Amino acid sequence: MDNQLIGDPQPADQPEDLIRLLAAKDLEIAAMQKKLEKYEAIFQGLSDGVLLIDETLSECNQEACQIWKCEKDDIIGFFPSDFAPLFQPDGENSYEIAQKKVSEALRGNVQKFEWKDIRRDGIMIDTQVILNRIEVDGKDYVLATFKDITDLKIKENEKQALLHMMEKIIEDRTRTLQEYNESLNEEIARRKRTERNLEHAYMELEHIFDTSGDGILVLDSDRNIVRANLAFAELVEQPVEGILGKKCFDIFPCRHKCTDHCIIQEIVVGSSKTDFEKEFVSISGERKSCLVKAAALRGEGGEVLGIVKNYKDLTSYKRWVDRLQESEEFHRITLESIWDAIFLTTDDGRIVFVSCNVTGIFGYDSDEILGFDTIFDLVGNRFYSNHELAEVREIRNLEVEVTDKGGQQRTLIANVKRAALRSGTTLIAFRDITERKNAEKRAKIEYEQLVQAGKMVSLGILVSGVAHEINNPNNSIILNVPLLSRMWYDARVILDQYMDEHGDFMLGSLRYSYARERVPQLFSGIMTSSRRIKHIVQDLKNYARQGSTVMNEVIDINGVLRAAVLLLDNQLQKATNRLEIGYGFGMPHFRGNFQKIEQVIINILQNACEAVDDKAKAIRVRTGFDPAPGLTWLEVEDQGLGISDEDLPYVTDPFYTTKRACGGTGLGLSISSRIMQEHGGELTIHSRRGEGTRVRLTFPARQEGDAA
């Protein structure tokens, strides 16, 4: 009873051992409760978010809520992918990745990875996640611990950006140093590669120093020479032993020496490097030039420990530059001295260079030529073919017709050649051959005239022989026809008496009554024709005969016209049924060459005959005199085809003809025009296509008192 009063009330019917057992259990439960509270405090106090994953999120700590900015109820029952974007940065679906990671963790494979989450406030964060399998009451769960590493990632990105910027600065600095001093870059690069083996690097540096093609000096802070390589000794023509220990200005005299104006002093004061060009006279008396580059050797505190100077010998380079300038001047003078215009173009014809003497050929100065887009704009699109030039590499003797700035037509000959120059690929040379072409044309005209003269000589010889052969039988006819005529008149008396007695009768194939009247006419016709044959032969001989070269014959224009018409009588009769010739009265004479003027009139009459395509169309020839200007004139007008406006200005040019297909040479009117100029006269042509042509010859008439 006492025990019952003192202790907890116990059922009267419970055994003593059960009471003790329950007490023990209570103590165990209390201990477990305290342990649970401790674990709960630990669980909630963890700095990482903790999640318990069954099929969904079944438990989380306060830090998980803090990371995702939500309440516990907003987490329980959801899946981790519900707190992530639809796709992760690598492009994979967040739900599929989460399922895969959880499955791997349930198999016992610890999963550690970075993950993109979206907080409930919509902000995306970076997290680091670890998945482990745990067993609770015989069932497997996935315990996920995660932490927000967004700030860490930002710092890492900033660190990477800073590192990248530093690397860029280092790269730029390294590139600058490489451009500044190529020889020292090799030494610096070797030093970097030999940091693990200082002794080996030192040996390599020694080798570079001794074998460098540039002279190298090492000075201490007081500008005393402590090292010098062989190249420097050869540059200054002194032994290395005689250089060491001296001041730099003892080897290279310097007017500034140790003053504040010394270039080396700039490095000592604050500059890291400097360069300058220096000329000096060597011991042998040779003037040399070198490029000096100097850089400071500084200690850890920035103090100047020494100076490295690099001497590059520019003497040969300077001589080469001088020779190059001399060569350039020589080529410039050469280009100015030649007559050819030289062009340099690109593949597409764009002009990149033109010689200064281009004005003499094209009329444009160099700046105006460069204003053309391409060479083809200057000389024409059909100048040359790029495809052909690419195959043969050079095209020679191309003739080009161009119009210069003043509008004058010029003939050029061009050579086009591929060139391996930096600024252009095609070299073109133009030469003006206009005068040569004109000379060739004049020579051809003179040659044709010589040929014509030869033909005329041959014609004269031929005509003389033919005239002799024709004159012999013709003279016989002229002599015998009068005799036969007299015999006929004597015999007609007897024949008349016979007809009176016997009537009309046949004489040959004619009745005597008809023959009595007709035969005298036949004798007269034969005599007239024979005399005409004699005149024609004589005119042919006169026309073909080489006339006098003097221009002092007294010319009657009507007489020359009659001789020309007589020679062309047959051609004129075939050409037209309406030949009208009007001879002027009281025509004054003029001085000249009968044969040459006859040749002009024949040429013009022949052209008129060839122009008339219908015999019903007329050819009119007239002569006359204009007293006011004192000019004798002859005019030939036809109703032929006429001359087009395009051809009319050129019909008197040598070899220009509209009848080349039918044998025309283009010399008739050209020679006629020159003959008229020799006589002080003028040949004028008026024509319209389809309406005919009128040619007028004018000669200065002979004045009273002129010598005959």
From TrEMBL:
<keyword id="KW-0418">Kinase</keyword>
<feature type="domain" description="PAC">
    <location>
        <begin position="274"/>
        <end position="326"/>
    </location>
</feature>
<keyword id="KW-0067">ATP-binding</keyword>
<keyword id="KW-0808">Transferase</keyword>
<keyword id="KW-0902">Two-component regulatory system</keyword>
<dbReference type="InterPro" id="IPR036890">
    <property type="entry name" value="HATPase_C_sf"/>
</dbReference>
<dbReference type="InterPro" id="IPR004358">
    <property type="entry name" value="Sig_transdc_His_kin-like_C"/>
</dbReference>
<dbReference type="InterPro" id="IPR035965">
    <property type="entry name" value="PAS-like_dom_sf"/>
</dbReference>
<keyword id="KW-0175">Coiled coil</keyword>
<dbReference type="InterPro" id="IPR003594">
    <property type="entry name" value="HATPase_dom"/>
</dbReference>
<dbReference type="Pfam" id="PF02518">
    <property type="entry name" value="HATPase_c"/>
</dbReference>
<dbReference type="InterPro" id="IPR003661">
    <property type="entry name" value="HisK_dim/P_dom"/>
</dbReference>
<dbReference type="InterPro" id="IPR000700">
    <property type="entry name" value="PAS-assoc_C"/>
</dbReference>
<dbReference type="InterPro" id="IPR013767">
    <property type="entry name" value="PAS_fold"/>
</dbReference>
<dbReference type="Pfam" id="PF13426">
    <property type="entry name" value="PAS_9"/>
</dbReference>
<dbReference type="Pfam" id="PF00989">
    <property type="entry name" value="PAS"/>
</dbReference>
<dbReference type="InterPro" id="IPR005467">
    <property type="entry name" value="His_kinase_dom"/>
</dbReference>
<feature type="domain" description="PAS">
    <location>
        <begin position="201"/>
        <end position="246"/>
    </location>
</feature>
<feature type="coiled-coil region">
    <location>
        <begin position="177"/>
        <end position="204"/>
    </location>
</feature>
<keyword id="KW-0597">Phosphoprotein</keyword>
<dbReference type="InterPro" id="IPR001610">
    <property type="entry name" value="PAC"/>
</dbReference>
<feature type="domain" description="Histidine kinase">
    <location>
        <begin position="465"/>
        <end position="703"/>
    </location>
</feature>
<feature type="domain" description="PAS">
    <location>
        <begin position="327"/>
        <end position="379"/>
    </location>
</feature>
<dbReference type="InterPro" id="IPR036097">
    <property type="entry name" value="HisK_dim/P_sf"/>
</dbReference>
<dbReference type="Pfam" id="PF13188">
    <property type="entry name" value="PAS_8"/>
</dbReference>
<keyword id="KW-0547">Nucleotide-binding</keyword>
<dbReference type="InterPro" id="IPR000014">
    <property type="entry name" value="PAS"/>
</dbReference>
<protein>
    <recommendedName>
        <fullName>histidine kinase</fullName>
        <ecNumber>2.7.13.3</ecNumber>
    </recommendedName>
</protein>
